[in-house]
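Case study.
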Amino acid sequence: MANILIVDDSSTMRKIISRSLRQAGLTVDEIFEAGDGIEGLSVIASGKTIHLILSDINMPNMDGLEFIKQVRANGSTVPIVMITTEGGEEIIKEAMQSGASDSIKKPFTPEQLQEKLGTLL
Amino acid sequence: MSPNTSIAGSCTFTEDQLATYVIGATREVFSTMVMMDPADDYPLKESVNRFKCSITGMVGFAGTYSGVISIHCPIALALKITSNMLGVECDEVNEDLNDAIGEIANMLGGNVKQVLSKGGLDVKLSIPTVIAGEDYTVNSLSDSDCVVIPFNVGDNKFIVGLTLKKED
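After joint prediction, the assembly is written out as follows.
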C-alpha cells in the first residue's frame, strides 16, 4: 500500500485525483494534500512516509517546477509525476530535467492514471 | 463580448480555427472531468456581456499571445457541474463551486495554450479568477479579438469565450 502526496491549488482537482486513484484500483493507503509547493514541502518535512508525489505545475506561491527542484535538492528520490494542464513539450522537458518521473495531462481518465502510475506503485 | 470576424488579422489563426480548438477543448474537459457532453451552438447569434445569477471563471495568457479564456455559466448549471466533478451533491454557492469553475477555466486555458505555444514556455497561464453574482457584465477593454462559443447541456446553456492578441 502506498502513501501519496497530491500538490494542486485546486481542491476540486485534489478530490478528483484522490477518487480517480481509487477508481483505477491502485493500491493507495494514505493520501496527503497540499495547495502549493510550499505546503507540499511542509508535508514532506513533517516526516510522513510518501511513496509517490503527484503535482500540478501552475500554482501560486511556489509552482510545480520549483517544488520538484526543492524536493530533489533536499535529497528525496520519491517519484514525482506532474498532473497538469501544461502539456507543452518544453515545459514537460524542463520538469523532467528538474527531476520529475513522468507527466499526465489534465483532463485525464482513471484508466490513464492507472496506466501511468501502475508501474510506480 | 461579441464575435469578431477579423480575428485572423491579429493572430495566425482564423476565427473558425480558434472556434474549433475551443469547442474541442470544452468537449474534452466536460466529457472527461464533468461527465457531461455539451453540444456547441456556434456561431453565437446574439452578443452577450451581461449575466444574471451566473458564475464566470477566467484564465489569462501572457507572452507570445495575450488574452483571456472564460467560461460563463448559470449558477444552476454550475452546481450540477460541481456536483459531477466532486461526486457529491453541491447545492449552494460556496468555495467548492468557485474552485470547480476556476479549474474548468484552467483546463480550457491549458488546452488552448498548447495550440498557441511553441513548447509551452513562450506563453504563461495565470491562476484562475472566478466571479459570481446576480447581475454583472463582463467587458474586454482592449482591442483584442474574440471568439464566443455557446454550448447546450440538456436545457441548460453556457458560454466559452476566448479573447486573443498576438504580441509583437
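Observations recorded in class. Strands of chain A lie at 2-7, 28-34, 52-55, 80-84, 102-105. The mean pLDDT of chain A is 93. We will return to this complex in the next lecture.
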